[in-house]
Design goal:
The structure is a homotrimer of 401-residue chains. Chain A contains 13 helices and no strands. The first copy, chain A, has 401 residues and is an all-alpha fold.
Chain lengths: 401, 401, 401
């Protein structure tokens, strides 16, 4: 027995070594990606900042895992799912850019790939715990294709003669994440998910607080991901002010509607401001951003309380992590807020473009998700235990006396 | 019932939308805050670093919450209190600067506002858990006014013909925080706080370790908050060396005085070096900073063990998080250490200025805190359950079998 | 009683104050370390990045503590050990550089010192929990001497007429850490360590996930620690791609060999890619790095499963945290991968230099560790309780009803 296992391990290890050697031969030690060698001054500074933004966005990606591990019996599985998701979506996105579009590997492309990865990590929240670990990996490949298309459309497709205003990704990232996830979920149709108890503990929820609060802090890295350095000052200002808005309004709505605060409503809804500010990031001043944050936090909290049960019942599927209430609804809020601001400043075409683009991305993401859902359904295999670390992990707990 | 709640939620949401629209109309989409557009070279680099420092200080602010959540039955409430405190103090500080002093919104001002917010978050530690959540919000408004005054005085008021030497905020931040909090606490006089058991668990204290260790790491962002880039190298060197000093001496004092380490003494006292180095940050070399850190850590640990019970008994109020032992005592240590260094280097006026300024800030903060305490007392309302998440939050724990 | 304790505390405090005053007198307030004052442009940017890298590496150092606190009854002790280790190794390293080698205190030296400190923190993982807290402090002094020698050799000693290729520290950091720790462990010979149960809980392991995932994210700060800014782009690209490789292959090996994932194998082995990429960091392109990461993750996971029990049994000592499986084995992998890449690109001397250097560092670290082990053994004193917070800390848990 032990020997056969050793044999398998050896075989796997050998196969990987072989693969490694092959890769090392085919892909020569290269001079590419060192094009920054020639940089100096402001260009070097820009490049340096891409390094920092990459780290910031990856940091946020990992925190998203902790934002989702409130179910005590399903914590480590969330972490593993996030890691496998990030790996497949990041690698696939990079491969598409380099080998399909023929782009050179740059720091900016790595920032974009980490945004693609975090978008997929948000998306899996909708059906988290209802599929097997390797399904997240497969889904990431499909997602990267969908996202590369979405990104191309948002950045290049003109509507009413103008490009979409979405520097911080309300539409491209958050709506795409929510509706891709929902598309997968609608096809998978895991009805039993409704029956599963999702008990929390003090500390599983404390991890969620930690994640939510640090995500809030790091958010400027994310919304400024594709901006030039000259826009950082305004981006950070509006991002934080919108975030302070949702910190306050989510609390007010929780207290007004439920007399007490549900931490699993509040810790998510307090991020609605930074989600919604993505589109109007550079179109408002900090006080306008505060107002948008107040609105977004209120809407998101209200959706957790009232929309979530109604919608899940209507659709017949459970949005496990309530992704739609945060990323979906605050994404729409951002798109509309940006349109309103553009209307006020006389740019009617720009405002309409944002709204139409939001609808388009809603549709594309939902369909892309549904197709991915079909793939996952075909690959489903044996039934599994949902929302459970016991299904995936070896534990070593103290036996009860 | 459910309908009336939906009505309320709708009303709240509508009110906020209205507020948002109003804000968007009155505060036009602006070109301000984009003054960095014209920057390049060293100026752009400075600007970029303010972006990073902002994030670093906000990160620390959130970690302060986790530094304070060792009471197992009162973890989430600490997080919520920190968020509401940060929101009101940051927004009010910014409003004062922009609308009262007439300053333009800049990245440097955002750094200062985040310092103001973290100062208030430290201050609430003194009375944390003894007032209602929305009191922290109200208190933040009052605090921002006091802090704006304190900041103005420290930065502009000459004593003995010289400005105060406090680049890293030993006096302006830490003493202000400790004595403002104590001022509030002295007026509130919540005697019952002494009776409350404050049981910890392994993991609630592990969160405190995490917070303390990461705060220690991020401290250079904070002490270099208002410095130019050319002082970062020395600031980071002295900050870390002082921190290493208190890591060692706090351990020694804990072991000598109590034979074992009380984690809730050590995790705080190990931060005394970085607190105390604030004032002499740029006036000593790294080895001098190590010495100051050794002294500060020893003093702070000894204060947790001996001063805290005596002082709380004397004052008749409980310093819930022991804020005074860290920020108060290490603040004084920093002010005196800086004075000693200035004396040695022949700058007697500078040394005296630091000591007199420390006394002034002590008085102003205490009085400002007391006035805020009166406001909170007037707003007190129904009695509440202290140090309790049950009072504020909806829980979803597994029923015991 | 209480008085005598107060007396001791007073004495300690006084001694430290005295030490502080002496330090302040002997080491004058200085102008040194402010040499950056004259910098501007690219040089100032380099300097600024050293500030950020310092913080990043210290952040990782603290996370290493959380990577090692999965044993529920031994969490706080790990944190304290890490802090004391970091303090003594950092301070000693700096003292050696400044007072022995006569180097000026610079930002670059601080980055190197933080690398030295994290290397020692990794090393203590081998014998963590089997010695007393102050032993970690003593060991850090010895380690800093060994490491200063190792660093000098790797950076200056030519083999086959060429310097070693190890920009990201596969050999200098990871192999040094693993074999220094093993050297200590072999001399200490704490046989009882095998008998100790090491029970985990959901949340103690969730902290490990947090640490592992964030270490993964921050790794570019570490591998780019001694690089110029122009190499950051490639360094970050290969580091992340190698990391994605080990995320995937560690999972595959865990599932193939054990049907389920052991989180204490996976959370470590997923870091093998970033460890192994240290040597070939700038010699491969991102896809080559992915291949190396795949290989390293597979090897490391297989070593946790098969090599660890066999080796520990053979050596008669327990590698408590499995340091050798991650840092030792992935270090070798990195050295050989780099050699292979150099061979392929025709640089046979360079390849041989890497392998011979790896063997040399293996030997030097092992011997240095063994000598340190002898010192610790001489200082051993009374027997202690292993892997236990109760031995070191005062607790305040709720009494069971």
């Amino acid at each position: 027995m032990a020997n056969s296992k050793k044999g398998i391990a050896l075989a796997v290890a050998l196969a990987m070594v072989l693969m490694g050697v092959l890769a090392a031969i085919f892909i020569q030690p290269l001079e590419a990606a060192t094009s920054s060698l020639a940089l100096s001054g402001d260009a070097l500074l820009e490049e340096a900042f891409k390094f920092i933004k990459s780290i910031g966005i990856w940091f946020m990606l990992m925190l998203v895992a902790f934002l989702m591990l409130f179910i005590k019996k399903f914590e480590w599985g969330v972490c593993l799912a996030v890691l496998l998701s990030a790996a497949s979506s990041f690698i696939t996105y990079m491969a598409i850019q380099e080998f399909y579009f023929g782009n050179e590997w740059t720091s900016q492309m790595m920032v974009q790939a980490s945004v693609a990865a975090i978008t997929y990590v948000i998306a899996i929240g909708v059906f988290l715990g209802t599929v097997k670990q390797w399904h997240y990996f497969i889904g990431g490949i499909a997602f990267a294709i969908v996202y590369a298309a979405v990104e191309w459309i948002v950045c290049n497709f003109e509507l009413f003669g103008t490009l979409t205003t979405d520097p911080g990704g309300s539409i491209m990232v958050h709506m795409c994440a929510a509706y891709f996830g929902l598309g997968v979920c609608l096809v998978l149709r895991v009805k039993d998910a409704f029956q599963e108890p999702m008990y929390t503990t003090t500390h599983s929820v404390s991890f969620v607080w930690l994640a939510s609060m640090l995500l809030w802090v790091l958010w400027p890295c994310f919304v400024c991901g594709s901006l030039g350095m000259e826009d950082f000052a305004l981006g950070a200002a509006t991002c934080y002010m919108a975030g302070l808005g949702s910190i306050v309004s989510a609390y007010v709505v929780c207290m007004v509607c439920q007399k007490k605060v549900n931490p699993l409503t509040y810790t998510y809804a307090m991020l609605a401001g930074p989600v919604a500010i993505g589109a109007p990031l550079l179109s408002v001043n900090p006080w306008g951003a505060l107002a948008i944050g107040l609105v977004a936090g209120a809407i998101s909290a209200a959706c957790f309380i009232y929309l979530q049960p109604w919608l899940c019942n209507k659709l017949g599927v459970l949005d496990v992590m309530g992704v739609h209430n945060l990323h979906g609804m605050a994404g729409w809020t951002g798109a509309f807020a940006c349109a309103v601001v553009l209307f006020i400043s006389g740019n009617v075409d720009g405002g309409l473009a944002d709204i139409v683009m939001a609808v388009m991305i809603f549709a594309i993401s939902l369909i892309g998700g549904a197709i991915t859902g079909v793939i996952l359904k075909l690959a489903k295999g044996k039934p599994m235990e949902m929302f459970s670390d016991d299904y995936d992990f070896i534990k070593n707990e103290e036996p009860e006396h």
